[in-house]
Amino acid sequence: MNRNDIRIGLFGFGVVGQGLHTVLERTPGLRARIGRIGVKDRSKTRSLPPELFTFERDEVLDDPALNVIVELIDDADEAYRIVTGALRRGKAVVTTNKKMLAEHLQELIELQRQTGTPLLYEAAACASLPVIRNLEEYYDTDLLDAVEGIINGSTNYILTAMHRDAVTFAAALARAQELGFAESNPALDVEGLDARNKLVLLLAHALGLVARPEDILTVGITGISELASSYAREKGLVIKLVAEARRLPDGGVAAAVLPTLLRPEHELARVHDEYNGLITQSLFTDRQFFLGRGAGAVPTASAVLSDLSALTYGYRYEYKKLQQQSARALAPAAAEVDVLVTFGQGHAPERADFSRIHEYFHSEQQGYYLTGTIGLARLAAAAWLRQPGISVVRLPQPLRAAQAAPVASAAEVEAADCPA
């Protein structure tokens, strides 16, 4: 079937699905039209003729008039059934479901090889940022050392509102939901899981490593304490949720998603509202920065549109870095990170978990904090990490190889008051 004339079987007609319909209407140069739409809710009133819609998955997948499946639903398990079913039927697929992709990436790569059918997902990484294709094509032979970015627009919108506009977390989240940046159930966003799933995709295309999502240390923004925010203001720093993957000297890779304190001059410190920003570091091109909208109907739909356009000239991912085997494996035991930990009476981190403690302060009014260096694997395994009342924020240094020095107990510095 000639994909220069794209006939779309669309799954999902929510915010992004309607955005896709809008951008297709405004892009007459791309010969693409929606032929059938699979939806779940039978009671919802929709803006298009009812004969376009069906409630049966196979009515779309088995329709011989449709040659491209676009999957835009929020159910990862159903998305997996749709995507694999389409690929096995020889239909090209465009998807935005980063959770489904992250959980099944190795299998989906193999299925593409077996069927010879492309699966594209530019919108699943950073919405409007053209990240995946740049990693695949522009950096195809460049030895990337690291990717680091703000890759979840919802959490960035919330943190911007809290820092710049001095609104509460709850108010910022509610506003993000009203604007369509955050889902009605925002847990994937605010707990850092959406950024983690996107980091899995970036790892594959940037460093040539397929990782399991659960193997990446992930801390969201819900536990950021007022004391951590006070510390940031006192030091002139900004808190952002940052995903980072960095090649270690031994060929392993350190990766994590953590709330991070950034200096004002850092590129990501100037990424506000629903925008995403991604930094690449490489042997040949040094440091480069991508900036664009990371949430919303039209920005996400524009990335879907880009994938549809790519299909018209037979584009598919070649997973070049995977073929080069440029990275060996995740190696959290070989990496360390500097962190700020705030806590209250009776909820303290184990100081023995830290290789170095740099500061230790306490205040009867605001609680306690320490700053120190800890192994990435040790932090991920720490029982205290998820305890109520403990907040962990990364200090403004990148992930790095662990030092060979033995565990040392630094002198503790006490003060009558924490920074206010």
Automatic annotation (TrEMBL):
<dbReference type="InterPro" id="IPR005106">
    <property type="entry name" value="Asp/hSer_DH_NAD-bd"/>
</dbReference>
<dbReference type="GO" id="GO:0009088">
    <property type="term" value="P:threonine biosynthetic process"/>
</dbReference>
<comment type="pathway">
    <text>Amino-acid biosynthesis; L-methionine biosynthesis via de novo pathway; L-homoserine from L-aspartate: step 3/3.</text>
</comment>
<dbReference type="GO" id="GO:0050661">
    <property type="term" value="F:NADP binding"/>
</dbReference>
<feature type="domain" description="Aspartate/homoserine dehydrogenase NAD-binding">
    <location>
        <begin position="12"/>
        <end position="122"/>
    </location>
</feature>
<dbReference type="InterPro" id="IPR019811">
    <property type="entry name" value="HDH_CS"/>
</dbReference>
<feature type="domain" description="Homoserine dehydrogenase catalytic">
    <location>
        <begin position="130"/>
        <end position="308"/>
    </location>
</feature>
<dbReference type="InterPro" id="IPR036291">
    <property type="entry name" value="NAD(P)-bd_dom_sf"/>
</dbReference>
<protein>
    <recommendedName>
        <fullName>Homoserine dehydrogenase</fullName>
        <ecNumber>1.1.1.3</ecNumber>
    </recommendedName>
</protein>
<keyword id="KW-0560">Oxidoreductase</keyword>
<dbReference type="Pfam" id="PF03447">
    <property type="entry name" value="NAD_binding_3"/>
</dbReference>
<dbReference type="GO" id="GO:0004412">
    <property type="term" value="F:homoserine dehydrogenase activity"/>
</dbReference>
<comment type="pathway">
    <text>Amino-acid biosynthesis; L-threonine biosynthesis; L-threonine from L-aspartate: step 3/5.</text>
</comment>
<dbReference type="GO" id="GO:0009086">
    <property type="term" value="P:methionine biosynthetic process"/>
</dbReference>
<keyword id="KW-0521">NADP</keyword>
<keyword id="KW-0791">Threonine biosynthesis</keyword>
<dbReference type="InterPro" id="IPR001342">
    <property type="entry name" value="HDH_cat"/>
</dbReference>
<comment type="similarity">
    <text>Belongs to the homoserine dehydrogenase family.</text>
</comment>
<keyword id="KW-0486">Methionine biosynthesis</keyword>
<dbReference type="Pfam" id="PF00742">
    <property type="entry name" value="Homoserine_dh"/>
</dbReference>
<keyword id="KW-0028">Amino-acid biosynthesis</keyword>
